[in-house]
Amino acid sequence: MSEDLFKRLVSHCKEYGFIYPSSEVYEGLNGVYDYGPMGVELKNNIKDYWWKAMVQMHDNIVGLDSAIFMHPKIWKASGHVDAFNDPLVDNKDSKKRFRADVLIETEIDKMIAKADKEVEKAAKRFGDTFDEKMFRETNPRVLEYTQKALDTEKRLAAALKTGDMADLKTMIDELEIAEPDTGSRNWTEVRQFNLMFSTQMSNIGGDDGKLYLRPETAQGIFVNFLNVQKTTRQKIPFGIAQIGKAFRNEIVARQFIFRMREFEQMEMQYFVRPGTEMEWYNYWKEKRMAWHRAVTPAEKLRFKDHDNLAHYANAAVDVQFEFPFGFKELEGIHSRTDFDLGSHSELSGKKMQYFDPELNEHYTPYVVETSVGCDRMFLTVLSNALVDETVPDAKGEDSTRTVLRLAPALAPVKCAVLPLLRNNEELVGKAREIYDQLKFLFLCQYDEKDAVGRRYRRQDAIGTPYCVTVDHETLENGTVTIRERDSMQQERVAISEVARIVSERVDMRKIL
Ligand code: GAP
Questions:
Q1: In the predicted model, is pLDDT for residue 68 greater than 60?
Q2: What is the DSSP letter of 364?
Q3: Do 287 and 314 reside in the same domain of the chain?
Q4: Which of 33, 227, 342, 393 has the highest Cβ tally under 10 A?
C-alpha cells in the first residue's frame, strides 16, 4: 500500500464513521482519535478475537480489568518514573520537537533506500541475467551505503542502551540531519523526556498524591498477581489477560492511529517457573504469530528482535507489520524475568511469590508478556482490507467500487437486509421481518434507500460480508438472494436458511 492509499484510508475512516479526529470542532487534539459507529464495532470485534484466543481458548489464562489510576509507588517500582524516557531534541529555528532516535532511524532508512535504488537500477540494466545477491555483495556503492546503515544502527543502539544523549547529538550533527520541513540544522542538546502523564489527587498534596495515567496495562496485572492466583487457584504456568487504555506523552504522535497519546492495549502476562522462560517465550512467539496470520497475509508480517532491551526484559521481539510507511511494531513479546514481581515485593514489603507443590518450594515466578496495541491492530486490519477495484462487466458509476475485504468475523456489520424496492409494501414488510429475526444474532442493517446497486456499494465500503435481498421471487416462493461481498456472487436460498448460513460464515471459529 502506498502513501497515497494511506491517505485514502484515513479519509475512508472519516467518511464511513470508523475514526474521527478527537475534538474536531476545536481543531482537534494531536495524537488523540475517536472511534465512530463502524469503528467501535470493528474495534470490539478485534478485542473479542483477542479475548477468545487468549482467555476462552486457554483454561489456564484468566481475565482482569484493573483501574487506570494506581498507587504512585507502582510506577517507581516498575522503573517507569526513572527509565520510561525518550530522547528529545528541539530545533531552535522551527521550535519543533523531535525524537532524536527517530531522526537517526529515518536517516538509516534513507541509506538503505539508496542501496536499494542502486540494486533496482542495476536490475533494470542487466535484465534477466541480474544476480542481486552477488551485486549486493560486490558493488562498492551498495556496500558503502549498507555498511554505513549497519554502523549507524549499532551506534544508535549503544547510545540508547547507555543513555548517552551526548552521542545522539553528535550523530545528528555528523549525519547532518536537517529538520524535515525547514531544512534547519540548528539543534538543541538531546535530553531525556519522561513519557508518563500525571495528575493530582484532590486530598493528598505533593508527590504522595501524584497519580500517573498508566503507560501500560501490565502493572495492574502484576500488582493483582496474588489476588488472582489465590482466587482462581491457578497453578504455574498460568496467565492473566487484560484489555484497557494506556497513555503516553509521545513527543511526536503521528501516522494516524499508529502512535497516539491515548490508546488501548491487549496484554497478557504468563507466569512461569524460573529457568523455563525461554521455552515459553518461544511458545508465545509462535502462538501470537499464528493469531496474526489468521487475518493478515504472512508476507506482511515478520519478527524483529530488539537491539535495545527495555529495563525489565532479558529477551524481546516485535511482531512487525508492513504498514504503508514500512515494517513497524505491531506487537511486543517480552521475557520480563522476575523484575516486576521482584520490584513490587521489595517496595511494598509484600512477598509476591508462588508455592510450587511439585517442587515443594516458594519462588518469584518469571513472566513472559504478549502486548499488542488494539489501535495498531485496527490499522493493520484496515490496511489489509481496503481495496479500490474495477468491477468486471459493469458500466458507469458501477464500474468501480471501494471494498473492505475484512474477515467476516471482524466486520462491523455482518449482514444487510435490502428490499428490492422501497415503495412496495410487501417487499418492505418481508425484509423488515427477516431483519427483525437476524438482529438477535449479529449486527445487521436494514436499508431501503437508493437503487440496490448503490446499497451494495455502501455495504462494500464498510465491509459487510453478506447482503440479503428480498425481491419478487421472495413473495412467490419464500427465497431470497445472499450476495457475498468479495466475489459479488449471489445465491438463492430459503428464508428459513438465512440465519444458519450467515451465522456459520461469520463465526469467530473461522479465524480462531
Ligand atoms: N507492557 C509492554 C509494553 O507496553 P510496548 O512495546 O511499549 O510494550 C506494546 O507496547 C504495544 O502497545 C505496542 O506493540 C503497540 O502495538 C502499542 N503501543 C505502544 N505505544 C503506542 C502508541 N503511542 N500508540 C498506539 N499504540 C501503541
A1: yes
A2: P
A3: yes
A4: 33
- Statement: residue 62 has pLDDT above 60: yes
Residues within a 6 A CB radius of ligand 1? 216, 218, 248, 250, 259-260, 263, 265, 267, 329-332, 369, 371-373, 375-376
CA 345 to chain centre: 32
Determine the structural domain holding residue 115 and report its residue range: 85-192
Going by pLDDT thresholds of 50, 70 and 90, the confidence category of residue 1 is: low
Give the sign of the dihedral formed by CA 370, CA 374, CA 379, CA 381. positive
Distance 49 CA to ligand 1 centre (A): 19
247 CA to middle of ligand 1, Å? 10
Q: Are 202 and 350 contained in the same domain?
A: yes
Asked if 482 contacts 491 with a C-beta cutoff of 8 angstroms, the reply is yes
Does residue 79 belong to any structural domain of this protein? no
Q: Give the residue, out of 265, 268, 383, with the most ligand 1 atoms within 8 A of its beta carbon, to mutate for a pocket test.
A: 265
Which of 192, 216, 242 is the last residue before a domain boundary? 192
**If you write DSSP's letter for every residue of 94-132 in order, what string do you get?**
T--EEEHHHHHHHHHHHHHHHHHHHHHHHHHHHGGG--H
* Claim to verify: residue 242 and residue 334 sit in the same structural domain: yes
Radius of gyration of the chain from its Cα atoms, rounded to whole angstroms: 27
Among 167, 192, 217, which residue terminates a domain?
192
- Is residue 311 pLDDT above 90, yes or no? no
Q: Residue 242: pLDDT above 70?
A: yes
Average pLDDT over residues 488-493: 98
Query: What type of residue sits at position 290?
Result: A
- Give pLDDT tens digits for 105-131: 999 999 999 999 999 999 999 999 999
Tell the residue nearest (CA) to atom 5 of ligand 1: 332
Q: Which three cell numbers stand for residue 345?
A: 515485593
Other beta carbons within 10 angstroms of residue 258's beta carbon come to: 19
∠ CA 3-6-10, rounded to 5°: 145
Report angle CA 461, 467, 470 to the nearest 5 degrees: 140
CB 64 within 8 A of CB 228: yes
User: In the structure, what pLDDT confidence band is assigned to residue 356 with cuts at 50, 70 and 90?
Assistant: very high
196 CA → ligand 1 middle, Å: 13
Residue nearest atom 6 of ligand 1, based on CA coordinates: 332
pLDDT higher than threshold 80 for residue 385: yes
Going from the Cα of 322 to the center of ligand 1, the distance in angstroms, rounded, reads 16
Record the cell numbers describing residue 158, joined without a space: 549503544
User: What mean pLDDT, rounded, does the chain reach?
Assistant: 96
pLDDT digit string (tens) for 177-199?
999 999 999 999 999 999 999 99
CA of 425: how far to CAs of 3, 448, 480, in Å? 48, 12, 16
410, 44 Cβ separation under 8 angstroms: no
Confidence band, pLDDT 50/70/90 cuts, at residue 421: very high
